[in-house]
Design brief:
Layout: H1 11-20, E1 26-31, H2 36-40, E2 45-53, E3 63-64, H3 82-91, H4 103-111, H5 117-125, H6 128-135, E4 156-164, E5 167-171, E6 179-183, H7 190-203, E7 213-219, H8 221-235, H9 240-271, H10 275-287, H11 291-317
Helix pairs in contact: 1-9, 8-9
Length: about 325
């Protein structure tokens, strides 16, 4: 069982991760609000990935469904794998014609058919192709810092929310089974039902806690726009309104292409090792006698900021 690296909670990372598995027809977008308008703009949404600060002893917000037969669920068997765990748990519970899982995920699904959740998680941890794609996002390290501090490092964890058979499930690899959050309200979209569930979860944390991130796994937007263009061309529609729609669709396709280019550039930068450059720059600054003055200047600036914060705090208290 090999090591897994930490994954950054970013839509560009998750989109490339999914496509690295060979899955087509989906992409990932970040949600900055729980209001209905934010969700409407991204439909269809197949599932949600939620990042939060994990706390010991937190109880599940629903009922553990140990008897679920039609739900794919892998327990997490190794550290740092929760990002891929959340994605795989989500994708293998979505049954849409537009989504092509690809051979890697299909073969894994077939291989673990009949396994219990613990053994599915163990098999996932040892799946070489999936682990290789996951670890392609490891940040390069030339050396490690041995920082001995009594402060405990915060732990962050990814989970999935997904609709299955008219009910909403929370798939958390640290639990022994899927968590049944209840039925989707009659006549409502599943997102209308899940939004207050996520909101209540966030409210449990201290006021001012901002370490949350919510991402939606949605249909491939470029493919959606291209499909609509093809429909218009096939129907031979011709009017000012149609011309405007065609123009809008072409603009949106261009925007999606530019966004994917930006994602690729950002991911290349994430993987690039900047440490040799930084070391050389520090050597040059030290040789020219500029390093120590710059460090002292930075320390003075930081000290002044701390004094200003203390003064503002005292002013607020009075």
């Amino acid at each position: 069982m090999g090591d897994w690296c930490l994954i950054e909670s970013d839509p560009g990372v998750f989109t490339e991760l999914i496509r690295g598995f060979g899955c087509e027809g989906v992409q990932v977008e970040e949600l900055y609000s729980l209001d209905d308008e934010s969700f409407c703009q991204l439909r269809p949404i197949y599932g949600l990935i939620f990042l939060f600060k994990w706390r010991q002893g937190d109880e599940p917000s629903g009922t553990l469904d140990a008897d679920s037969k039609n739900i794919f669920f892998a327990q997490q068997a190794i550290s740092n794998a929760c990002a891929t765990q959340a994605i795989v748990n989500l994708l293998l519970n979505v049954h849409e014609q537009e989504i092509k899982l690809g051979s890697t995920l299909e073969e894994f699904r077939d291989f673990v058919s009949g396994f219990d959740s613990a053994n599915i998680g163990l098999a996932l941890s040892n799946q070489e192709k999936i682990r290789t794609v996951h670890n392609s996002f490891a940040r390069p390290q030339v050396f490690e810092l041995d920082i001995r501090s009594p402060a405990k490092e915060d732990n962050y964890h990814f989970i999935t929310y997904v609709p299955i058979n008219g009910r909403i499930y929370e798939l958390d690899g640290l639990r022994e089974a899927p968590i049944d959050l209840g039925p989707i309200k009659e006549g409502e979209d599943w997102l209308t039902t899940v939004r207050p569930i996520i909101a209540r979860r966030i409210e449990k944390y201290n006021e001012g806690e901002i370490h949350f991130n919510l991402m939606a796994v949605i249909g491939d937007r470029k493919a959606k726009y291209e499909k609509r263009l093809a429909e218009i061309a096939e129907a031979g529609m011709d009017s000012d309104d149609v011309a405007q729609e065609v123009y809008n669709l072409q603009s949106m396709i261009h925007d999606e292409e530019e966004k994917m280019k930006r994602y690729r550039k950002e991911n290349v930068r994430r993987r690039h090792n900047y440490i040799p450059f930084i070391v050389e720059m520090l050597k040059i600054l030290a040789k020219e006698g500029k390093l120590v003055p710059l460090v002292e200047q930075a320390l003075d600036k930081n000290a002044k900021k701390e004094l200003e914060k203390e003064a503002q705090k005292k002013t607020a208290e009075t």
